[in-house]
Amino acid sequence: MTELWLMFSAAFIAATLLPGGSEVLLVALIDNTPEKWLPLVIVATLGNGLGSITSYYLGTLGRFATTPEAMAQGRYRHSIGLLKRYGYWSLLLAWMPLIGDLLCLLAGWLKLPVVKSSIMIFIGKGIRYLLVAALTLHWL
């Protein structure tokens, strides 16, 4: 049970506060207890997804701090363009380092639909963790 809480916490923190190596932890935990690979993937996905949804909600709060004009002309121009062009589908890329956290934050700022956005976030992150687990189990 300790492994699951550790995995959840690391995945949540990696999606919110600090860039972290939740994938490295997942590999280590699967290497240590391969029979728990599925619960580890589930809690990693849940933790990382909830961390990204936290970023989404922080983005909604950010609307009070800046104007749309300032965001559209600033360094976030490319990410905002991606979100405006592809909408919540862009959040399938929420798993990507650096840009993923920004996409979630800006999705909230743009007020993309929260349920559809959440579904895309969880799908993208779940696929990433499944691939990491599959590769780890393959190499054991």
Automatic annotation (TrEMBL):
Alphabetical list of Pfam families matching this protein: VTT_dom
Keyword Transmembrane helix annotated: yes
Transmembrane intervals: 6-30, 37-58, 86-107, 119-139
Keyword terms, alphabetized: Membrane, Transmembrane, Transmembrane helix
Domain VTT: 23-134
Keyword Transmembrane found: yes
Source superkingdom: Bacteria
InterPro entries linked: DedA_domain, VTT_dom
PANTHER family the record matches: ALKALINE PHOSPHATASE LIKE PROTEIN, INNER MEMBRANE PROTEIN YQAA
Name this polypeptide is given: Membrane protein
Lineage of origin: Bacteria, Pseudomonadati, Pseudomonadota, Gammaproteobacteria, Alteromonadales
